[in-house]
Amino acid sequence: MCDRPSVGAGNGDPMTTSGVIQELTATGLEESPKAEQAERRRKQRGGRRPSFTMFLVIVPFLVLIFLFSYFPLYGWIYSLYDYKPALGLQGSEFVGLQWFQLLVGSPTQVAQIGQVLLNTLAISFLGIATSVLPLAFAIFLNEVKAPWFRGAVQTLTTLPNFISWVLVYMIAFSLFSSTGLVNGVLSDMGLITVPVKFLDSDENVWITMTLWSVWKGLGWGAIIYLAAISGIDRELYEAAEIDGAGRFQRMWYITVPQLMPTYIVLLLLSVANLLNNGMEQYYVFQNAFNKEHIQVLDLYVYNIGMTGNNLSMATAIGMLKSLISVALLFTVNGIAKRVRGQSIV
Amino acid sequence: MTTTTSTTALTAVNPTQQPRTPAPRRTPGSIAFTMLNALVFVLLAFVCAYPFYYLIINSVSANDLAALGEVRWFPQGFHLSNYEQVFQLNGLPMAAIVTVARTVIGTAATVLASAFLGFMFTQERMWARQFWYRFTIITMYFSAGLIPVFIVMKNLGLTNNFWVYVLPFIVQPFFIILVKTYVESMPASLQEAAEVDGANIVQIFFRIYLPNMTPILATVAIFSGVAQWNSFQDTLIYITDQSLYTLQYLLYMFINQANSLAQAMANSGGNVGAIVDAATSQTPTSIRMTISVIVVLPIIFIYPLFQRFFVKGIMLGAVKG
């Protein structure tokens, strides 16, 4: 009955794993087959005359979209100026491609941006490497048979997803600062005499950042796979059992392959987001000690633009980042289209 | 990526549903695996939940013990004066008001706009519907970048302005897709009947569709509410006026800058200094933990409620189909 994990389960088609993915990824640029069915129904709805009034009532919202999403694109022009807010664009000096040349020409700048890119890619790849963890979480949690236990585990492990990075940092601070819990426990056990500097250190920054992301996102990330598992045809398992497949064989030869399409889609999306780590996590965790290895692109743009006041340089880097991200998205989408016959955006 | 994370919630599994795989045979190996498996999940759940518990017990424990990280399993020297004290901190009551206001106003605006646009984009008759729909949705996939957006906000007079917490969040493509999908699953006869009665499109939306969209709107409301409550970055970028600081931002400042906390404590008047009892005198650690608990408690309380709501929403969707 209700175990079809569908959003607007209105069309009565059986929810298979691919159905879940479709719900997950059919984000409207190309309307899904479901939308086609709805289209047919809508054809019966109302007349064929185009209604201008219907357009007018949404204009205020379109204006908001224009202002906050499209209009800022004009700001890319700042990357061609030495923009000083006090002078305005008119008063600022036009410098052409100076910032872009600096980006690839100046040795200090190249070294800096190289480190930033390295951080960005390292943290992104660690994120991709750990993306199997939610998958494993779901598969093993599915082996737990007591519903109350599954429910409790899901509730508790999903909670960190709903708190802000500031609070995650507060938790990190309470547990791992020099007077925090972990150092207290370690010294009580006689393992250390001097507090370990977990936070004020430049060592293993990429790994600790990844671990915090895993802590925050593991339970939440598993939900999509649990939904997909509940959509797997039970007969597959029954048939396998009749054929003598054991518990692990059923997990490995049925559950895992059935979840692969979902996993691949999420993997492709994370590849498309290779440069977009966001800045919040890294901003709250950054300090004078770990700055070199924590600065990812998004944070770097903030640091040089808002803190360092070089708005033009920050715009130039942000613009390159946006263009590369869009290109990555198209590439990944093209691959998905060719391989799966279905686009992911 | 918000796109994917939000959808997953909609498809959240009913935790109480029957397991789909047949029960394993009870071999010793199988039993050992079951035990080990359960143990790993107990550990994972502990790792996720204990930090919250740690903050809570420390906020009600003797402050000198809390500052040393000595309170680990149970509150020691139980007292609630931290909670009285933090609201006398300079700036905290205002931050609480701002945070609640942005959460309530921002969420209401987002929910209404998502409902309306999601509904309107199902209207085949709308002039250039397909074009405007794509115009809206495609904004999920690109961004002009931090600085150009900042300059636009500045030019619009939205820096140091409460509405920067609301206006940019009103139109959210992903929520619009959710609502649109939901409306498409509702019977078209609803609208036809109202049209026969002579209702216009706005009336049809408010009287017929809006009241029937509750499950999907609850989902939108929860995500948007949590995002508003947790938002930190917009204060950091657009706000310098202290009267517009949010709780998250204040907490960040108190964690990272010992000075700002000391100042806020000094400015809070004689109250802090007046307490002589060593166990209850304020320390930065206990103040920070108490604020953290205030910031996280609403989430902890609301969360189990909305987890159930998803299950309900899924069932409603299924029945409607």
TrEMBL record, chain A:
Localization terms from the record: Cell membrane
Membrane-crossing segments per the record:
52-77, 116-141, 162-186, 206-230, 251-275, 311-332
Enumerate the InterPro entries for this protein: MetI-like, MetI-like_sf, UgpAE/MalFG_permease
Superkingdom, according to UniProt? Bacteria
Residue ranges constituting the ABC transmembrane type-1 domain according to the UniProt record: 117-332
Query: What Gene3D superfamilies does the annotation carry?
Result: MetI-like
Q: Describe its membrane topology.
A: Multi-pass membrane protein
Listed A to Z, the keywords are: Cell membrane, Membrane, Transmembrane, Transmembrane helix, Transport
Q: Which family does it belong to?
A: Belongs to the binding-protein-dependent transport system permease family.
Q: Can you name this protein? A: ABC transporter permease subunit
**The organism of origin for this protein:** Agromyces salentinus
UniProtKB/TrEMBL annotation, chain B:
* Record region (Disordered): 1-25
Q: InterPro entries given for it?
A: MetI-like, MetI-like_sf
**UniProt KW keywords:** Cell membrane, Membrane, Transmembrane, Transmembrane helix, Transport
Tell me how this protein sits in the membrane. Answer: Multi-pass membrane protein
The UniProt entry, under SUPFAM superfamilies, shows: MetI-like
Family according to the record:
Belongs to the binding-protein-dependent transport system permease family.
- Which residues are in the ABC transmembrane type-1 domain? 96-306
| Location of this chain's protein in the cell | Cell membrane
Annotated membrane-spanning segments are 35-56, 94-119, 131-151, 163-183, 204-226, 287-306
Please identify the protein, giving its name as recorded: Carbohydrate ABC transporter permease
